[in-house]
Amino acid sequence: SVDPDPTLLFRYSAVTFNGHRIHYDWPYATQTEGYPGSVVHGPLIATLALRAFCRANPDARLRGFTYRGLRPLIAPQPFVVGGRVSAQGKAQVWAGNAQGIAQQGEVTFD
Length: 110
Hints:
By secondary structure, the protein is an alpha+beta fold. The chain contains three helices and six strands.
């Protein structure tokens, strides 16, 4: 389970030079933009899903990765990342919470 806290979101914004305040400024995200909380970065979710794949498949040699956001994840609500090998050299990864899947991706590997 991932608990997206303000520090994680701020640090990811800083390291990726993403200045959009919906990711780290809770009052701005809720009062100005109308979100129920801070929005978790799509690329952060993808990074965590890919990292989970790599940990579960340490001998895999990555060849490609694509992902698609389906709906936002809102902090501080926890979410999970998961995946499964779906065919030779392919795996499906995802992230979601109690409301359902928020992001899907595909990993290609040797």
